Amino acid sequence: MAYSSSLTNHFLIAMPGLQDPNFARTVTYVCEHTEQGAMGIVINRPLEVTLGELLAQLEIPTDDAELQASPVYQGGPVQTDRGFVLHAAGPTYDSTLGITEEISVTTSRDVLEAIARGDGPERSLVALGYAGWGAGQLEQEMSANAWLNGPASDDIIFHMDTGERWLAAAQLLGVDLNLLSGEAGHA
């Protein structure tokens, strides 16, 4: 049975007042949200490492210069040594979780091997680590005005420049984050 208040396939958009350095000015794609908690991938925090460097560390060869220069993202503060690949749904790999008919997440090496060969998913975002919340934790943060949330857009995940994603995700909701104060209030 589906969790009726699920934020799966939604963006969590950090409010301007969110000071946690792991999440300030981030957009997190929620891969799973149940009564037991939530898991997501931050999609706008590139690391210093490129995909080419990561593939070389894993001894996965590729000659694709554009692929080698692609950023790897800090997916969140949990298990930062573990890889997560958000990608267009379709092909499945050893550990693929279908999130929607359009987006999946895979944690197994075979997706990186397919990407390196050029026969992987048509769109992908590679991240190290994830964002996780225990039961009720995300709901508590939302009631404290830490996050905006709204439906996700694969255009923002896969096609938009990293630096534009935070403002663009809020603009999907008609919100201009530049006009919001960093202070939250309750009526």
Describe the structure.
- The chain is an alpha+beta fold and 187 residues long.
- The protein has a domain at 10-81 and 128-179: VC0467-like.
- The protein has helices spanning 51-57, 65-69, 109-117, 137-143, 154-158, 165-171, and strands at residues 10-14, 27-34, 37-42, 46-50, 71-74, 78-88, 96-98, 103-106, 124-134, 147-151.
- Strands 1, 2, 3, 4, 5, 6, 7, 8, 9 and 10 form a ten-stranded mixed sheet that branches.
- It is globular and about 45 Å long.
- It starts with 9 loop residues before the first strand and ends in a 16-residue tail after the last helix.
- 34% of the residues are buried.
- The model has no long low-confidence stretch (mean pLDDT 93).
- It holds the Pfam family DUF179.
- One of its GO terms (cellular component) is cytosol.
- This is UPF0301 protein EDC29_101454.
